[in-house]
Every structure is written in C-alpha cells, then in structure tokens.
Fold:
Amino acid sequence: MRSIIDVPDLSTQEIQALIDTASDIIAHPDDYREACRHKKLATLFFEPSTRTRLSFEAAMYELGGNVLSVTDAASSSASKGESVADTARTVSCYADIIAMRHPKEGAALVAARAASIPVINAGDGGHCHPTQTLADLLTIHREKGAFGGQTIGLCGDLKFGRTVHSLINALSRYEGMRFVLISPAELKLPSYIKKDVLRSKGIPYEQTTSLEEAMPQLDVLYMTRVQRERFFNEEDYLRLKDSYILDLPKLRNARKDLIIMHPLPRVNEISTEVDPDPRACYFKQVLYGKYMRMALIMMLLKGA
Ligand code: NCD
Structure:
C-alpha cells in the first residue's frame, strides 16, 4: 500500500514520471477518460478548501471514476469524537483511494497507517502539502523548461505556509537551486527545514524582509497568504497580514522572464492589477494542479 504524505515519499524519477504523464494528459485528454473507471476517490476535508478538493474531484471524474465526499468536519462522525484512524479504516471499506485535509499536523500519516487503501495528504495543518507542490513543479517545468540553476523567492508566511515547506523539499533536489526567503521576522521558515533540508544539502539561501531588494535576482517569485487560522491571536495576524503586497511598481525591477506564483487563495498579497501581466502564473497553476492530481491518482491506483 502506497500513500503520499509528503514530497520525500516520491523519488525524483517518480516526480518526473508524474510530470510526463500530466503533460501527456494535457496533450491527449481523451486517452485517459476511462483510466479509473469503477474506482472511487473519497475526499475527506476537515478544513476549508476550494481548489484542492475540487481539483481532486475533477481529476477523478476526468479519469472516469467516482467521488465520495466529506466537506465539513461538523457533518461527519469526527464531530462525535471518532478518531482519524477509525475514520480511515471505515472509508477503506467504501473507496479505493483517499485524499485528506486536516487541521492537525501528522493526521494524514495516522490515516495512512490505519487505512487499507492509499492516502494522499491534501494538507495537514502547518506541516506540508505535497500535491500543491506537484502543481507548482509542473508550473515551473512548463514555464521555465526545466529545474535547476534557478533563484526562487518565497515570500510571506514561511512559518505556517505548508505549501512552502513541501516546495522547498522538492526543489532542493535539483542542481544549482538558490532560495531567497522573504518574510517578516515572526514568520520565518521553521529552523527544522533550514537545518534538515537546506543546510544539510548545502543549498544556498538568504533571508530578508525586503521584497523590493530581492526582486531583481528572482527567476520565480512564490507569494503566500498569511495563514490566519494558525495564529494564536488576532492582533498579530492583523499586524502581519499586509506585510507584502505585490503590485506593478514592485515589479519594475523584476526580470522579464520572472514567473509569479501563488498557491491561492490570495487575500491582499497580489494586487489584481498584476493579473494581466504575462509573468502572472497563479491561475495556470490551478489548472496544472488538476493534471498532476490525475497523474498521481493513476499512479497510486496502479500500485494498489
Ligand atoms: C494552500 C493551503 O491550503 O495550504 N491552498 C491550496 O491548497 N491551494 C495555501 C493557503 O491556504 O494559503
């Protein structure tokens, strides 16, 4: 039984195979319409989501499969006190694969240990979010042609932003990557990621509070939302929420071939005046997420 809890669960060859499959789906969607016929995906979402849940469900429908869905903890037995492990064991009796989002770090791992079907982590608290990273990787691959030798700016809430954690994990496998970590002092990247991923692999990185100063060197700018739901007090959130707002004047010193990414939802981090700029890739990223989830579901069901 194969589950995907975070990016290290996938080898670099498997990531490339997923990118190749997603690219083939984009080129020949009709070839995949029956790929998961009679299979069921259960989406168990105990935390809000628009893109991730709907893209998993759209992915399964486009593969000819079916979907069972829990969209709200309050409407499931979790509200009666059922454990994640028992829920996973139960859903294993109904479905062939689970995509799960949960507010607690480690919940997907607990589910995977209890389930008898593959579990995909669709976000566990402030920890990680591997399928968003697959969407991000396909975006970078299609927009930049390849991975390697790029300077990646990550901006915003690097402390609680789980998409950032998984993306650094993935990109740090490729040659010549550099990271510029742009955040307020309170929302810096957790030290365990700096130590276990960046320093242990000798990957160069710098930390700054200034988006403007970082801008000219960036090949990729990955903006993130300040994660309100992970804050202990509202005052801190209100003070930090608008730390970075990307607008056209801030892009004046950016490279012509910069790509601007954001896992979405955005709150104020990117002014809508940036949307028509050819460097804005965040809505393409949404679409690529569906193709990568199709590729991942197929891979896991084949191995199941
Ligand atoms: C992200 C998430 O849920 O972590 N969104 C997503 O899945 N596309 C980012 C966020 O909520 O800020």
